[in-house]
Amino acid sequence: MTPPEAPEDGRNQPRVKPPAASVCVPDSLTVLQNRSDFLKAARAKRQGTSSMMVQARKRGAGEATGIRVGFTCSKKVGNAVARNRAKRRLREAARAVLPNQGRDGWDYVLIGRAEVTAARPFEALKDDLRYALRKVHGGK
């Protein structure tokens, strides 16, 4: 006799595989991964807010298409747990704001700030990102 949770035929049930693509960032956004892309953004426009620093650059002709975004936090933000939490919040804010307010052909790097990025209310975090994008793109 088999235990009640075992399948009748004795074979293992197939496991559900997670999606191969990241579900954190929508298809309209591409995540920056190369250090050279981060360095290029660091030499371009930047706008600070109370909860983050946003660096943005318009890519030249022949480079990748679409909106690209990168996330980083220095060790000043805290230990690995604190840095990862801040980056998760930045990632979610970018997922919500950049598809509508970001511009095609631009790279954005969101940099977390010590103690503030992880503690700021999420709606205020998104408002900070919207404000920074308006300033970077020349709006009021």
Automatic annotation (TrEMBL):
Gene3D superfamilies for the chain: 3.30.230.10
InterPro entries, alphabetized: Ribosomal_Su5_D2-typ_SF, Ribsml_uS5_D2-typ_fold_subgr, RNase_P, RNase_P_CS
Top EC class of this enzyme: hydrolase
Superkingdom per UniProt: Bacteria
Catalytic activity of the protein: Endonucleolytic cleavage of RNA, removing 5'-extranucleotides from tRNA precursor
Annotated family: Belongs to the RnpA family.
Name of the molecule in the record: Ribonuclease P protein component
Naturally occurring in which organism (per UniProt): Ruegeria halocynthiae
